[in-house]
């Protein structure tokens, strides 16, 4: 094993170690992770919330035991592969071993440490953006058409993972037109590669068509309920924070794309980042949507710094900067402190805007952290209610949101299957059973009195328990028990499904 390979493996091992070290016991999985894990039981070419790739990975996780350790392995793996692709990008651009180490350090000690903790499409999305750019660099470098087909394959996988990667193409196409690389558009293999990508994603497009393109409804709902609260200035501030330790390297890369002669064939990348960020800013995108842009620019910057900076002390300083600047982020950006510790010293979190939730208001914990609390407790209390039912086979567990349903299904010890009219669960109701009893999981603070609304439909009903973890976003969520229905529950569910889909 040579020195270069040994250093690369060191970064990859360190990446895995940090991903597990930066979260303390006491935090559960994240709300979104439970939905994705449940998708493994309902494999399809598409879902209301995401394309299918996440469900395929969830199926692998399920096959490996479905433990939290395994769940966290896959986003860590995608993060490690991102470092690998950045390293290979530096080599493709002619960078030295120092440039490889600088780029790997900047990529490791960045927002990716937080992103790669969660089993969501985002980790693979960043890897696909980075690999997409790497394949384009490789084609420009070699003019070997196999890189075009590799580009197409990565684009397809990225699209089947998260539609967000379409914005990479939105940025690249005008950028190509603005540079001599516009000759690409005269290459027939470009179009054959795009047809190849279209063929790969066509099952998902067909699924979207058959289901009346739920992606558009999802985007509309997202824009109305979440993106409307996104401040464009905050979006731009977040871009600086995400790779704060690598900021000087990214800037060096952008400068190098304009003035460094060996980078002239790649100048389209300068225009691409400007266009992509402009589109994201205009659309009020969430800050993390753009994270996939930056790793390749770290590669450009590391190569440029490696060529232009000769002093040993200065080169060492540049490597140390990402590590040193990571230390204050270590204190706030990860669930490595108890809720009590965070609440006792909230100012660092408030200054970084981490206490602001998607509702636009400040809360006592960062939203992501609050979304990792209370789930085991909820599942235990639903299990207790379920065991008390006289006829479990005809008992329905109905929740308010996908986090509740998914967490119950993940942590249950009784095998109960919870559903909700929220997200993909609306398609997962089993109406082959004539339901007689209901366990209703109701979010605290939602409009309406559950006993007044649902109680008259059953012979008996009462509030059995609630989530008592006051730090959880689900604090106060109540478990209601209703027995012996006086109405046809199944028929009411069918009507509700029709109304929700409409």
- As a percent range, the share of strand residues is 5-15%
- How big is the Rg? 25 Å
Mean pLDDT: 91
Strand order of the largest sheet: 2-1-3-5-4
Q: Compute the number of strand runs.
A: 5
Helix content: 55-70%
The number of distinct helices, counting runs of at least 4 residues, comes to 23
Query: Span between N and C termini?
Result: 60 Å
Q: Which stretches are low in confidence, meaning pLDDT under 50 for 5 or more residues running?
A: none
How do the SSEs run, as a string of H and E? Answer: HHHHHHHHHHHHHHHHHHHHEHEEHEEH
How many domains is the backbone divided into? 3
Largest sheet: 5 strands, mixed
Characterize the overall form: globular
Output the structural class. Answer: alpha/beta
Could you characterize the architecture of this molecule?
Strands 2-1-3-5-4 form a five-stranded mixed β-sheet. It is α/β, with parallel strands linked by helices. It is globular. The protein has three domains: 3-332, no CATH class; 339-370, no CATH class; 375-501, no CATH class. It is 59% helix and 6% strand. The mean pLDDT is 91. α1 runs antiparallel to α4, α4 (68-92) crosses α15 (295-308) and α5 (97-108) runs antiparallel to α15 (295-308). It has 23 helices and five strands.
Keywords:
single chain; 502 residues; alpha/beta
Task: Please render the helix and strand layout as text.
Elements: H1 3-21, H2 31-38, H3 53-63, H4 68-92, H5 97-108, H6 112-115, H7 121-142, H8 146-161, H9 166-177, H10 188-210, H11 214-225, H12 232-242, H13 247-259, H14 268-282, H15 295-308, H16 312-332, H17 339-344, H18 347-351, H19 367-370, H20 375-387, E1 395-399, H21 402-411, E2 418-420, E3 437-442, H22 450-454, E4 458-466, E5 478-485, H23 489-501
Parallel strand pairs: 1-2, 1-3
Antiparallel strand pairs: 3-5, 4-5
